[in-house]
Design brief:
Elements: H1 2-24, E1 28-33, E2 36-41, H2 42-98, H3 101-114, H4 119-131, H5 135-146, H6 152-165, H7 169-182, H8 187-199, H9 203-215, H10 221-241, H11 245-258, H12 263-275, H13 279-292, H14 296-306, H15 311-322, H16 329-341, H17 345-358, H18 362-376, H19 379-391, E3 397-400, E4 406-407, E5 423-426, H20 433-461
Length: 462
């Protein structure tokens, strides 16, 4: 603003200076044309010249304005249409959010008619159609979006949601793969694709998706490693079923590198190593995993592979394995169990005393029942311990931390809720009391039968 004022002042001073100069230096401008001579003072001639220039400039501007007026008017109309179109688009989105079906479709149509770019209205039209329950119309809009540059991902997402809603897993998987190729760093999409691959049992493909998610930091590295290990165990199961034991052993080894305490991987690899006449390697593997994560199934396989008929030597084997993690509950339990089988009552009692204080559970009470019955032939005392066993804290099992499903066997995917990597070896909570109760009842029957059998033999001997 200040600069313009200075400019006008300078121009005014220039004109004043010119006027003063001509006033001090008067003269005449003469023009002769066809015998006619016109004489005009120099100042007046200059003013006339300026007027002519001004008129010419005005006429030129008028000509330019008239020439461009159709474009200007068209641009003005276009701006008004776009403004109304965007207004309709906004109102339509608000109507969708509010669940107003009629308003949403009305504004979607208005926006489509007013806006030149149909991609802006496709999503609104599709959502309005879905709100109205017209899935076929919504599908058409989503398909159009999937073929429109810049809108492909939104279209595929809409089609994916529709396929998932109607339970078409094959279609959903194909659409998820297409969308994933466009945006592999989208977390919800990577998770959806992984879940679909898991439902189809595509373990190798799921592992590739998981690896990509870890690479793009969509999944925590530690969690991702554990999940990759679970997938490798499932892949190994398929390979083993097809007779590809070497491949299965390799996959299980990779799984244990990802998660060194994964008991299912260790169990399966040890079994396959045993079949391949690599018993010493299998035994060494069990001992190594016991250091990290003792598990009763590892002990059962350990004893099976030793094939030791002598009960006292089996105690030595139990002590050797337990020595890898001596203070763990499972280590004390396997020593107590082996000692009972060898009729080493004192050693069994020493371990059970510690367990009764540190970790009283159904198994511990059942072992106490066996101890008092076999050592003293005290059936009444055994039944009292057995009663405590049925009322005690449930023994550990494979528990799904999502739905609470309790099972004796591990799986990468929960058979009940289909959650991935949700099974953990732990004591069932009160929420699982029904399922755990069924397991305890079955176990109680087994234990009671084991108690009655020696008593019957003792009576028969007498």
């Amino acid at each position: 603003m200040f600069g313009r004022i200075v400019k006008y002042i300078v121009l005014l001073l220039v004109f004043v200076a010119i006027g003063v100069w001509f006033a001090e230096n008067p003269g005449i401008v003469a023009v002769e044309w066809q015998g006619l001579i016109v004489e005009v003072p120099i100042g007046l001639a200059l003013i006339a010249g300026l007027v002519v220039v001004a008129i010419c400039a005005f006429l030129y501007r008028m000509w330019v304005f008239l020439r461009k007026s159709p474009q200007t008017f068209g641009h003005f109309r276009s701006e008004r249409r776009n403004h109304k179109g965007y207004d309709a688009l906004t109102k339509g989105m608000v109507a969708v959010a509010a669940g107003e079906t009629t308003e949403a479709r009305k504004h979607a149509k208005k926006a489509h008619d007013l806006l030149d770019d149909p991609s802006l209205t496709m999503l609104l039209s599709a959502q309005a159609a879905q709100l109205d329950g017209d899935e076929q119309a919504a599908t058409r809009f989503f398909e159009d979006m999937s073929k429109t540059k810049g809108m492909e991902f939104l279209g595929l997402r809409g089609l994916l949601n529709q396929a998932s809603a109607r339970g078409d897993m094959d279609e959903a998987l194909e659409l998820a793969q297409q969308a994933y190729r466009l945006k592999p760093k989208t977390q919800w999409l990577a998770q959806s694709l992984l879940e679909l691959q898991l439902k189809k049992g595509q373990w190798a493909e799921a592992e590739a998706t998981l690896s990509s998610s870890i690479k793009h930091k969509l999944v925590d590295a530690k969690e991702g490693a554990r999940q990759k290990a679970a997938l490798m165990v499932e892949r190994a199961g398929l390979a083993s079923a097809e007779g590809l034991n070497d491949q299965a052993i390799k996959l299980l080894g990779q799984a244990l590198k990802q998660d060194g305490g994964l008991v299912p991987a260790a169990l399966e690899q040890a079994k396959l190593l045993g079949k391949a006449n690599k018993r010493r390697k299998a035994i060494s593997l069990i001992e190594e995993v016991w250091r990290k994560n003792p598990h009763p199934d590892l002990y059962a396989l350990y004893q099976e592979m030793q094939s030791e008929p002598d009960a006292l030597k089996r105690v030595n084997l139990a002590e050797k394995l337990a020595g890898q993690n001596r203070k763990h509950i499972e280590s004390r339990i396997i020593i107590a169990r082996a000692a009972l089988e060898a009729q080493l009552w004192g050693e069994a009692r020493d371990e059970l005393k510690v367990l009764l204080v540190e970790a009283p559970s159904s198994r511990v009470f059942a072992l106490m029942a066996e101890l008092v019955e076999t050592e003293n032939n005290d059936l009444s005392g055994a039944r009292e311990w057995l009663r405590k066993a049925t009322q005690a804290q449930a023994d550990p099992a494979w528990v799904c931390h999502t739905c609470g499903d309790v099972s004796a066997d591990w799986s990468a995917v929960c058979p009940k809720c289909h959650g991935f990597d949700t099974k953990a070896w732990q004591t069932p909570s009160q929420a699982n009391v029904e399922t755990a109760g069924a397991l305890e009842e079955e176990k109680s029957t087994i234990v009671e039968a084991e108690l009655v059998e020696p008593a019957a033999k003792s009576t028969a001997a007498q």
